[in-house]
Amino acid sequence: MKSTQQTTLRTRVVVSGGIGVHSGKPVRLVLNPAEAGTGLVFQRTGLANGASRRIEARHSKVTMTDLCTVIGEDGKNLVATIEHLVAALRGLNIDNCLIEVDGPETPIMDGSAAAFVEAIDRAGVSHLDAPRRFIKILKTVRIEHGRGYSELRPADRNARPDSFRLDVEIDFDNAAIGRQRKILDLDPLAFRRELARARTFGFLSDVEKLTKMGFALGASLENSVGIDGDRILNPEGLRFSDEFVRHKMLDAVGDLALAGAPLIGAYQSYCGGHKMNVAVLDALFADKKAWRFVEAPVPHRAGARADLGLAVSPAFMPERG
């Protein structure tokens, strides 16, 4: 089985220069190594009287999914827009990380996971003396909402033992987006090449309404793809011809990471989003017969290391085709 040992970062790394896409305020983010079994945990600093609070990146901690994924406890100590960062950690097979953030929102950076991938590369990866734990999907669970759905199901018989396949389709009544579908077997190389650089997007017609509600105060063409009618407003255009569905898949990787461990199986969605991504996790864990934990064997030979596909090389590769 690939990636048999738990991982963490080799050293602490600071992500600076970012703002919250909704708050518009500067945010300082620090990624720290963590012990085996810690998982992905946020340390929310900057609270009243210098206090801080730890919040696990888990589906049970989600408080809102309307425009982004928000976690917190009892409606307090919230951390919003966690999906791109958590997607980068899960996409690059980082199992354990303590994430310090000094405000109520992680930085949006350029609207993708690229800056977080670069930060993880700067920190490096450390392999821990503990087996990697997976959640194996045993039966299909499905959530439907209107014409959309999200579904988790067991892996195909011929899939590799730790396989997780994503099949995401979007369908917008908009000529700039239209109907797009992408299927991807998730691993670090595929995440880097196919998903990490895909940016969030929004419609110019929604900006005034959102700002009146206190959202999107930091949104700009520097951190999102802007759409006006059937036109792309960004002078540089799109990074991929199907950047919109790639970003929806990136969001799904981040939201599904809130399972608390890598999933073995398959995910499919049509016209989904944050709300349905989290809802399908809730449905999975509500049925004890739908899943189980499995552990990967840890190599016993001296100096053995798992291949995570994180060799030192350019962080991103050009789109093929």
The strand count comes to 20
Structural class by SSE content: alpha+beta
User: Which bin fits the share of residues in helices?
Assistant: 10-25%
Major β-sheet, in short? 7 strands, mixed
Order of helices and strands: EEEEEEEEHEHEEEEEEHEHEEHEHE
User: What would you say the CATH architecture is?
Assistant: 2-Layer Sandwich
Poorly predicted tracts of residues? 298-321
Straight-line distance between termini: 31 Å
* Structural domains: how many: 1
In round numbers, the mean pLDDT is: 89
Radius of gyration: 19 Å
The CATH topology turns out to be: lpxc deacetylase, domain 1
Gross geometry: globular
Please name the defining characteristics of this protein.
single chain, 321 residues, alpha+beta, lpxc deacetylase, domain 1, seven-stranded mixed β-sheet, five-stranded mixed β-sheet, 6 helices, globular, disordered C terminus, UDP-3-O-acyl-N-acetylglucosamine deacetylase activity
What's the SSE blueprint?
Elements: E1 5-9, E2 13-19, E3 26-32, E4 40-44, E5 53-56, E6 62-64, E7 70-73, E8 76-79, H1 83-91, E9 97-101, H2 114-123, E10 125-131, E11 133-137, E12 141-145, E13 148-153, E14 164-171, E15 179-185, H3 188-195, E16 201-203, H4 204-212, E17 225-228, E18 231-232, H5 243-256, E19 263-270, H6 274-286, E20 291-295
Parallel strand pairs: 4-9, 11-19, 14-19, 16-17
Antiparallel strand pairs: 1-10, 2-3, 3-9, 4-5, 6-7, 7-8, 11-20, 12-13, 13-19, 14-15, 17-18
Helix pairs in contact: 1-2, 1-5, 5-6
Structure description:
- This protein is α+β, with helices and mostly antiparallel strands and 321 residues long.
- The chain has one domain (5-295): lpxc deacetylase, domain 1, CATH 3.30.1700.10.
- The chain has six helices and 20 strands.
- The two termini are 31 Å apart.
- It is an enzyme of class 3 (hydrolase).
- Belongs to the LpxC family.
